[in-house]
Amino acid sequence: MTKPPVLILGARSDMALAAAHAFAAKGHPLQLAARDAARLDAARQDLELRHRVSVTLHDFDVLDLASHAAFLDSLPGLPGVVICAVGAMGDQTESEQDPDLAVAVMRTNYEGPAHVLGLIANRFLARGNGTIVGISSVAGLRGRATNYVYGSAKAGFTAWLSGLRNRLARHGIHVVTVLPGFVATRMTEGMDLPPRLTAQPDEVAQAIVSAVERGRNVIYVRPIWRLIMAIICAIPETMFKRMKL
Amino acid sequence: MKLSGWGAYPRIETELAAPRDEAELAEFLVRGDAVARGNGRAYGDAAIGRRRTLSTRHFAHMLDFDAERGWLTADSGVLLSDVISAFLPRGWFPLVTPGTKYVTLGGMVASDVHGKNHHKDGSFQTCVEWFDLMTPDGRVQRCSRTENSELFFWTFGAMGMTGVVLRVCMRLLPVETGWIRQKSIVAGNLAEAIRVFEDNLDATYSVAWIDCVAKGADLGRSIIMLGEHATIGQIPPDDRHRPLHLPVRGKLSVPFTPPAFCLNRYTLRAFNALYFRMGARKAAKQGGVSLEHWDSYFYPLDSILGWNRIYGRRGFLQYQCVIPLAQAEAGMSELMEATAEAGAGSFLAVLKRFGAQESRISFPMEGYTLALDFPASERNLALIGRLEDIAIAHGGRFYLAKDAHLTAARFRASEPRAEDFARTHRQFHPMMGSALSDRIGL
């Protein structure tokens, strides 16, 4: 039985590459999309050698909305699963000083992903099946002084995924929202993260594979994050606004 | 941060970096006082840098496979377990493998690892066609038997002191199945065990588990396990349609670090006696022949994730020496007497025959090797010192990938080649440095 192809948007990130290995190990062909995709050639070779699946590379720029439809047309076929790992934390302080930088963070984390996934959702709808996985963030569950620009975009993305799931559930299309918590990736390199709360990219990848296979809706990678976020969301605003988080 | 090896002893302050590409690695390397670290499976302090420790985990691509010759080219941070998962289903197995599959290819080169087939096939360097090495000046050099051959040979067993291995081209062994046909033989004492090894030099794999608590007439009683890759015809008919499809076995894990008192001379004695009896029973059935899954044959401990924690928070030390053939029986029996005398027997006492091997600074030589492990305690540290002296007195030397105890004086006494190495070390690579190299003056 041939497995459906998996399209990964933002394929250069550590989480995306880990997901690529996890799906390839299960026999899924891969379509890896990123800016300057040729730089993923070593990863492509590695994936093909290890897992004997076909891997294609595709140039993709999430901010170039006008190119998204043509990008999808250029794929070797409509994928069965799409994983959106596009994202950029930006620098909160710089975003505060320069609203244009803040807008770039918002567009990268919300507008761009929602645009391309919106096109894919309609194609899945026309075909009658498909799975959409959006990697969002716990940062979107409550805005905090230290990263609310990034957080607000992720909040938008999370709400958008939730609405999409609601819209497509009755049509056999499944939407997974991933809220990974801390993950040891290039994005968090050099930060002093507590090891018990920090997942490895492989853990996120395994969690995604199992969420896709079991049709789960919203996943936290390490279960402790569900509790942490429940507590953070329960703090009354009068207290919350005075806290340093 | 504090880092340790697999034995969790000692723990040493170092700065850990994980460069993303060669340019970044070179930047760290030229600043000196560093050593590469793969998956951290060296037991002691070999992969802890003097100031900086350079993780190779981002150098983990497989690059090429020549299916005609079975040559795999891969980055040095690739795990042996991944090589097996990818290539055993295609009919290839590592030609030389250590007792855990969770090692990186770079670590296998630096330690010049050996397996249960050393007497036939030699150490890891046998199957390495070439590697690319970044020397401490940041240059990358292709090293093989014909190209930069001095650097090639000196790197095996040099514990990372010649630079950082970037890529390895290794030869794999064609196999028909993922099963091993094992024959178990009981030996009542050390002399008998050695006789069994000498009578079975044509077996591909051989290793003995020794009851290191037994004393007197039973000293050195052991179960010797010989092995051959099973052919299609030798496995059960039901398995013949998928002879190679044998995924890694299910995993247990040690969920927490038990208090040290769980491991004492009584539990050790009970464990060793039980293990011996089980082995003896197996040896008595069907002429001692059984079929073993590759994972449980080569990597019995890998199936218990975090097994290193059973020794408690203080960690444990491994001791592995080799004693040249002529003095092996005398040396081994002294070592075992000293161990049994101290009542400090270990769970994992392993005896093995090594074959002859040429090398610059690798551990193996023709003779017998004994590996023991001990929980880290003052008494055991003293015992290990005594065991080191016994090995040295019999012309033996030590496996640095396991060592955490040797002194510079003992290293020099055990290793006449150390001076040559120091001379070459100064010439090639004055700037690498690990906790191990500082301790023993490598």
UniProtKB/TrEMBL annotation, chain A:
Keywords: Oxidoreductase. InterPro entries: NAD(P)-bd_dom_sf, SDR_fam. GO terms for molecular function: oxidoreductase activity. It comes from the Bacteria. The keyword Ribosomal protein does not apply. GO terms for cellular component: membrane. Belongs to the short-chain dehydrogenases/reductases (SDR) family. This is SDR family oxidoreductase. The lineage of its organism: Bacteria, Pseudomonadati, Pseudomonadota, Alphaproteobacteria, Rhodobacterales.
Automatic annotation (TrEMBL), chain B:
It holds the Pfam family FAD_binding_4. Keywords: FAD, Flavoprotein, Oxidoreductase. Transmembrane segments: none annotated. Residues 9-175 form the FAD-binding PCMH-type domain. The keyword Flavoprotein applies. The keyword Transit peptide does not apply. GO terms for molecular function: FAD binding; oxidoreductase activity. InterPro entries: FAD-bd_PCMH, FAD-bd_PCMH-like_sf, FAD-bd_PCMH_sub2, FAD-linked_Oxidoreductases_BP, Oxid_FAD_bind_N. Signal peptide: none annotated. This is FAD-binding oxidoreductase. It comes from Paenirhodobacter populi. The lineage of its organism: Bacteria, Pseudomonadati, Pseudomonadota, Alphaproteobacteria, Rhodobacterales.
